[in-house]
Design a protein that fits this description.
Largest sheet: none
Number of helices: 5
Number of strands: 0
Strand content: under 5%
Shape: elongated
Helix content: over 70%
Order of helices and strands: HHHHH
Length: 182
């Protein structure tokens, strides 16, 4: 009888150990896959945001707009931007964001909100540039259009500040696979 009790305890212990190992293994596999997804989405968004800001700066788009604001304030003619086409959409250049929009939530609420805010701000600025390229502002008085562009430049500056902050947070998430809670 003692052998049966020991055997039962041994089998029970084996079953419990196997169940625990299966649970831990499944949990590890799930958390590993989740961390990998967080790393991938964070790295991809960060690369896209950094590249966009770098390209705008290298191509001196903001400087060009500032020059146009000065011309408008002096009632001089301005040309439409050559970096925006009338037929494009504001979110068009953001291939990674568009492809992974449904996955942004894996970054947690803090990064998802901040990344979405960045894309929204930049899309709004791009929408104004596209509208300008399509002639929407042709009938605006120069002083009024200068104010519109001035507001867009303030939004662009906010987007650049947000990009710097996002770079730190997204880089950290891309390395650790963990999302910030605050």
């Amino acid at each position: 009888m003692e052998d049966i009790g020991i055997s039962a305890l041994s089998v029970g212990g084996t079953v419990v150990s196997a169940a625990l190992a299966a649970y831990v293994g499944a949990r590890w596999s799930h958390s590993h896959a989740e961390r990998l997804k967080i790393k991938s989405i964070a790295a991809g968004l960060n690369a896209e945001i950094k590249l966009y800001v770098e390209m705008v700066e290298k191509r001196r788009h903001a400087d060009w707009v500032q020059t146009q604001i000065g011309r408008l304030e002096r009632s001089l003619p301005v040309s439409s931007p050559d970096f925006a086409r009338p037929d494009e959409t504001p979110i068009e250049p953001f291939v990674f964001f568009n492809a992974h929009l449904s996955d942004v939530g894996v970054l947690g609420p803090v990064l998802a909100i901040e990344a979405s805010r960045w894309y929204s701000i930049v899309s709004l600025v791009r929408a104004t540039m596209i509208d300008w390229a399509s002639g929407k502002y042709d009938a605006y008085p120069p002083a009024d259009f200068a104010l519109v562009l001035h507001d867009e430049m303030e939004l662009w500056c906010e987007a650049k500040r947000l990009a710097v902050d996002l770079d730190k947070k997204l880089t950290k998430a891309a390395k650790s696979g963990k999302v910030p809670t605050v």
